[in-house]
Amino acid sequence: MPSIFTKIIAREIPADILHEDDLCLAFRDISPKAPTHFLVIPKKEIVSLADLNDEDQAIIGRCVVVASQVAAAEGLTGGYRLVCNCGDDGGQEVPHLHFHVMGGRKLTWPPG
């Protein structure tokens, strides 16, 4: 069964898209945890970081570059946090690899 992110990529579910290219998609989180909170996802269906292989290097590199570019476009000049949860114990809720980018306020550590 396709994940919610696969449905967003296919435009079956609407999203506030901030960036799209051949490898990835960035869009606002529907349940933001910071004033600015968006996700960057690969278009390739990869379940989690644990499922990466050598062939995925370009995709993951592109996702991180897009996270940086969109963060700059969103005005996160004071900094931001890039988070990738992996598996149930890591807090991953959607079985499609995704990066959270959060900023717009002072973030604390540890996160939770």
TrEMBL record:
InterPro entries: Histidine_triad_CS, Histidine_triad_HIT, HIT-like, HIT-like_sf
Domain HIT per the UniProt entry, residue ranges: 4-112
One MF term in the entry's GO annotations: hydrolase activity
PROSITE patterns: HIT_1 (PS00892), HIT_2 (PS51084)
Residue numbers covered by motif Histidine triad motif: 96-100
Record-listed E.C. numbers: 3.-.-.-
Coiled coil start-end: none
List of catalytic residues: 98 (tele-amp-histidine intermediate)
Keywords: Hydrolase
Pfam families found in the cross-reference section: HIT (PF01230)
Superkingdom as given in the UniProt entry: Bacteria
Matches recorded under PANTHER family: HISTIDINE TRIAD HIT PROTEIN
Name the UniProt record assigns to this protein: HIT-like protein
